[in-house]
Fold this sequence. Notes:
Elements: H1 4-15, H2 19-50, H3 53-69, H4 77-86, H5 92-120, H6 124-142, H7 145-152, H8 156-180, H9 184-208, H10 217-248, H11 250-270, H12 272-282, H13 286-323, H14 330-339, H15 341-355, H16 361-386, H17 388-409
Helix pairs in contact: 2-8, 2-11, 2-12, 3-10, 3-11, 4-5, 4-7, 4-10, 5-6, 5-10, 6-9, 7-8, 7-9, 8-9, 10-11, 10-16, 11-14, 12-15, 13-14, 13-15, 14-17, 15-17, 16-17
Amino acid sequence: MITLNKFVDRIGNCLQLDIRYYMKNTTYLVIARGIDIGCSLFLSILFARFLSKEMYGQYSFIFAILGILSLFTLSGMGAAITQAVANGHDHVLITGTKEKFKWSILGSVVVFGVGIYYFSTESLLLGKCFMISSLFFPFIYNFQTFQAFFAGKKQFNKVAKYQNITKVIFLLSVSIVIFLSRDLIYILITSLLASSLLGGYFFTLGLRKMKNQSDDRSAISFGKHLSLMNGINTIADQADKIIIGVLLGFSDLAVYSIASAVSSSIRTTISPISRVAFPKLSTMNKKEAYSAVKKRYFYLVLLAAGVSGIMIFFCPYIFTLLYSQKYVDSVFYAQFLFVGLIFTIPTQMVGKALFASQRETGKLYRYRIIYSIVVLILLFVLVPKFGLLGVVLARLLGDIFAMFYSLKLATWI
Length: 413
């Protein structure tokens, strides 16, 4: 009788994959993602049921602006730190984080400037919110490098554990404030403060686990390159919410935020596969990394299609159960976003193969920039004409383009 271990080994041999490594570490991250999804969904339910659409839309709008301005925190440094640590350069955690803090000071100034702008337009609430956010801006993003450090160490159990603790404490803190005050400023301060303090604490734990002082200055340069690439990509990721908030209003933004929150949760559930793969791909040369991904690409497409189909079918029931009839309009837009899963999940793995080799920087630039420009053009063309439908169409068409363009860069088509 074939034991479970032998069966797993046979599957691994068939796929030419270290399946035990992926099962062990993906399990950690999937559990973490599950808790993350549960917390995020619960928080979105609280917003939907206890706050007005206008306030939920404002909250989403603020964090969309902060998300775009996070490009000042060198958002690509995390991947560079993971790669460097995976190759034995622990001190990059410190040098990379210092570099992020240095640039984020400029980001704080810009956030404060946004607050002044809204004050000048007599949007006093948003003005106050952005001015408060400028004080926390360097801390809410930069300390997250601890995740990159432990990922580089392949200690995904710690990544998962610390993510879980962070998410649960964040949820409890914000939930208490929502129940007690239902005031946007207090909710915002609690969100920013919880993220800053928890990130700082776990960053110190990462510092204690450094085993050497080996540095890699090329990783800092690579991180800046990735951040530059991420710049326009970050803008494209958040542009939909900002365009909706400006052109369509905060109530429509709340409807879209609910739709995108559920679809994003499913995307992040499967993303640990590519995240666990990255440290291994980082130790391969370009040819090996491409080959490793190409062999499993068809299975990724099947997985994505299966998940997409299930979610499209159950979407109406999920939304009615969680958000009541108040956000029934979100169902249609969420189903469009779920279709995009078929294209985005396989594309993630091709992207990891491109990331695995610093020699592929030119291809990464082209992919990030061209994809982001395509999405931005689609948003600006389709949203004024079709409203929220234009947003989800732009996202879907962008996902399709990203898949085929990534395959072209990998010279698979």
